[in-house]
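Workshop exercise sheet. Pairs work together: one partner reads the sequence aloud, the other fills in the structure field after running the prediction. Swap roles for the next sheet.
Pair: D.N. / O.F.
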Amino acid sequence: MRVDFRAVEELAPGPRWAELFRALWPSYRAYFLREGDEARPGYLSSLRALRQHMPELVSLYERLVELAGGGDAGARFLSLYRPTPYLTGCSQAVWTRGEPFLVRNYDYSPALWEGLLLHTAWHGRRVIAMSDCLWGVLDGMNEAGLSVSLAFGGRKVVGDGFGTPLVLRYVLEFCESTAEATHVLERVPVHMAYNVTVLDAQGDFRTLYLAPDHPAVVLERPFATNHQRAVEWEQHAAATGSVDRERLLDHHLGDPRETAERFADRFLEPPLFAADHARGWGTLYTAVYDPGARRAVYRWPGRACPQSFEDFSELGLALSFPG
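Structure field:
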C-alpha cells in the first residue's frame, strides 16, 4: 500500500490548511458519522466544552471552522469533543543518559493515517507536529523544546472528554515545561484511555496514564506502550505485544552498555517495529525529538527526514507498506 507523506509549513491558518481539510474531509466525515449522527455531540455542547476546558483554543477553533466552510458536521468534528473511538498501537520512551530525547513509533493502519507533518505558529509559538484530525497532535515539539507523544492505553472505557490529540495540541501551543504540561493533562478530560509521555528542554519527563473514569496517573517513568498499571484488555495487549515491548524498553533503558544511537535504532526493528501492515496494523513512522537542539527526525527503514524550526523542509514522500 502506498501512502503519501507530506510536510507542510503554514504559520497562520489559511488557504493551505483549508485545502488539506477539503482533501481529507470525505474520509473524516465517514469516520465522524460511523456510529450515526446522533452518537456525536451537537455543535453548541462541543463549543461549550471547549470554552470550559481549553478556552485559549476557541479563537483558533473558530478560524479553522471558518476555513472548513462553516458546516455543522465539520465544526463538531473539529472540536474533537467525544469523538468517534479509535485504537492505535505505539511505543514511546525517553533516553535519559547524556542529551535526552523522546523516541516513538506510531502503529496504525496505513489506510487511515493522515500522513501530515505540520509546522505552525498558530498562537505565536512554533510547533512541529504529526497531525491527527487536521489540528490534533500524535507527537510533536514546540520551539521551547517541549516534546510529547501518545499511545493508546489499552482499555475499552469511553467517556466524556476530548480526543487526546487535541489536548496535546493545547499543550504544545501554550506550555513550555513538563510541569506545565502535566498540569494541563491532569485537568482536561479525555474520552478514552491514553498514555502520554512528555519531555522538556531541561530533561524533565513524565508519563501520564489518562482515562475518562479516573484522575490522571502521573509517573516518573520514561516509557509507555499500550496498557496502563495492569493489562485490562488481554486480547489487545496480546495482539500488539504491549507487555513484551514495555519490558524491552525498560531493559534497554537500564542497560549500562546501551548507547543512545543503538536505542533509537531499536525502534526500526522488531518487536518495537510492527510489520503487520497487511492486517491493518503496523508501524507507520519513528519520530525522534531532541529538545536541546530543537530538532526532530522522522525515520523509516533506510530513510530519514530531519526537521527543525530553523530549517523546516516542505516535502512529499511516497511511502510503501505491505498490504
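Discussion prompt: Residues 116 and 166 are 15 Å apart (CA to CA). What would you look at next?
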